[in-house]
Amino acid sequence: MMRVWAWGALLFGCMYFALPLIGMTEFSLSMRRGEYSFDAYRVVLADPRFQATFAYSVVMALVTIAFGVLLVVPTAYWVRLKLPKARPWVEFITLLPLVIPAIVVVFGYIRLYNTSSVLPLTGSVMGTNLLLMFGYATLALPYMYRSVDTGLRTIDVATLTEAAQSLGAGWVTILGRVILPNVLASVLSGAFLTFAIVIGEFTMAALLDRPAFGPYMQILGANRAYEPAALAVIAFGITWACMGLIGLVNRFSRHTQAKR
Amino acid sequence: MGFLDLDRLEKSFNETRVVRDFSLSVEKGEFVSFLGPSGCGKTTTLRMIAGFETPTSGAIRIGGQDVVNVKPNRRNIGMVFQSYALFPNLTVAQNVAFGLKVSGAPRDRIAARVDEMLAMIGLPDLGGRYPFQLSGGQQQRVALARALAPAPQVLLLDEPLSALDAQIRVSLRSEIRAIQQKLGITTIYVTHDQEEALSMSDRIVVMHKGIADQVGTPSEIYNSPATRFVASFIGTLNQVDAVVEDPANGTVEVGGQRLVLGRALGRARGARVALAVRPQALRIGAPGPGEVGLSARVVETQFLGAVQRIVVDLGGAPLSLDAFNRAGAHLPQTGSQVTLSAAAEDVLVLVD
Ligand SMILES: Nc1ncnc2c1ncn2[C@@H]1O[C@H](COP(=O)(O)OP(=O)(O)OP(=O)(O)O)[C@@H](O)[C@H]1O
Ligand SMILES: [Mg+2]
């Protein structure tokens, strides 16, 4: 009897997730009347605005990842090494972006950095891009910090640092040649999550008026029927590809094999 | 003044004084062990030499130069850790090359040095392996090679063998000592294993609660312990309580019997003291000249191969004595009364 209920619950769960996906995919394939076709995808992929916004978001994602890695790896390392007592606090701070809505963050940015402020970042395109990148980095911070911190937990940070120091290494060498390579798998999973977040982000890009992929999806969704469904499937595919890559990276990082 | 000088080192964490008034002068090429129970400050002292802790006061000089304000990565000190601490992302060869690479040595010199080091530790073919593909003993050898590759002025080892099993521990012990003597490198070796310290060291520092209780050669430490702590920490030691009867000629009362040690004790009449004697300093038989004798009852005899251990009861306190197992030697009967003798100078009167 318990079995039946368990299977029933599982089936319900699957349906809950799968049905909308199936419906959306089915719809995205039905642009041509009476038969399935990839017409909607063809239209979307051929749209120059799609190409432009997608390229923009990919570049933004890569820059955000680079910034996030440079910010989070040394911070998490330093906290583990020198301020272990501060760890709960730092963790709390890194979780704040999950609680504070993106719209609040971006309004804060606009207020602080508008054209009549001391640092008028919104006054130029590059400045606004920079601001958006900071926003993305904030959104991704909880995921990036967690994965890097988890990675650091698997190595003996303090002793490895001392070993490297006694061999003459300075901080840059220690971070670049000892710490980063050993948490690379974690950094990459953080990076893929960041990528997925940035590609789909709407609020910040829209309010800062940047030509990102998220607002494009929204515009298309408001004006077309089949293409948004195709776009959603594409975005969904990208997210899942990122997840798959995380798994792959974890499987293929050579020197961590001993730990499993 | 030696090559490595520690001058009245002190270290406190908050209010606790972990290392107190620690002075030591190590000659170039000397192998000195820090020996003591857990928490006595061995690691802390070592870490001050390496530069990972800053002394609260005192000076550390290497080759006459005060290094207290020199950063750890500028001290040119090799360090070997209990947990090996090899870089897991680098191969054995890359691990050994790390220090040379950091110092910017040319590539061909690094390669030659790595080969030389791997040959020295007896693992010439394992350069391409990752640390997780090595046994604990192999990892610790690689860690030693890595520490020695940049030719440091001083080598520090913090309980390098305590994570290994007994057999490898013993063989690596002599290997480390042989390498140390071949290179003539000044070495500080931290351990809580007295056998390790006694067998490897030129000199031993016995530490107790942050203080260097005694500094001396292994035989000095073993044969003439300076304090009650050193005596009880090193080797097996019989201890019996005694009462001073005449401090001038060293007469004490033990289990209802009288011993005359023939030397002044510096304690008041009636003072309670502890007498200590090594099992191998006792023998069965009547005392000869310069010896003292006591009568005791045999409780147990143990056959230990090369030696026989006899446990006797002296006024309620157990005493053990070791005798070499020669052919024809016969063990006394359990329950029989025997006379024990020891040279008067081997009977130590311990202070607390
Ligand atoms: N960073 C620190 N902060 C506070 N107390 C410390 C610190 N490091 C060591 N101590 C204390 O100093 C004392 C000596 O520690 P130390 O590690 O030097 O001992 P040890 O002789 O190496 O012991 P073991 O044989 O267990 O390694 C201990 O009581 C320890 O709790
Ligand atoms: Mg220690």
CATH topology of the largest domain in chain B: Rossmann fold
SSE string of chain A, helix = H, strand = E?
HHHHHHHHHHHH
Strand content of chain A: under 5%
Helix and strand content put the structural class of chain A at: mainly alpha
**Rounded average pLDDT of chain A:** 88
Q: How does CATH name the architecture of the largest domain in chain B?
A: 3-Layer(aba) Sandwich
Low-confidence stretches of chain B: none
Number of helices of chain B: 8
Tell me the distance between the termini of chain B: 32 Å
Largest sheet of chain A, described in full? none
- Helix and strand string of chain B, N-terminal first? EEEHEEEHHHEHEHEEHHEEEEEEEEEE
Bound molecules: adenosine-5'-triphosphate, magnesium ion
Helical amount among residues of chain A, as a percent range? over 70%
How far apart the termini of chain A lie comes to 37 Å
Low-confidence stretches of chain A: none
> What is the residue-averaged pLDDT of chain B?
90
Question: Multimeric state of these chains?
Answer: heterodimer
The side-by-side strand order for the widest beta sheet of chain B comes to 6-7-8-3-9-10
Total domain count of chain B: 2
* Form type of chain B: elongated
Q: What is the tally of beta strands of chain B?
A: 20
GO cellular component, one term (chain A): plasma membrane
Protein name (chain A): ABC transporter permease
Subcellular location (chain A): Cell inner membrane; Cell membrane
InterPro entries (chain A): MetI-like, MetI-like_sf
Describe the protein in words.
The complex is a heterodimer of chains A (260) and B (352). Helix content of chain A is 79%, strand content 0%. Chain A is mainly alpha-helical and 260 residues long. Chain A has a domain of 126 residues. Chain A is globular, with a radius of gyration of 22 Å. The mean pLDDT of chain A is 88. Chain B is α+β, with helices and mostly antiparallel strands. Chain B has two domains: 226 residues, P-loop containing nucleotide triphosphate hydrolases (Rossmann fold), CATH 3.40.50.300; 115 residues, Nucleic acid-binding proteins (OB fold (Dihydrolipoamide Acetyltransferase, E2P)). In chain B, 38% of the residues are buried. Classes of the chains: A mainly alpha (260), B alpha+beta (352). Bound molecules: adenosine-5'-triphosphate (ATP) and magnesium ion (MG). The site of adenosine-5'-triphosphate has 11 residues of chain B, from α1.
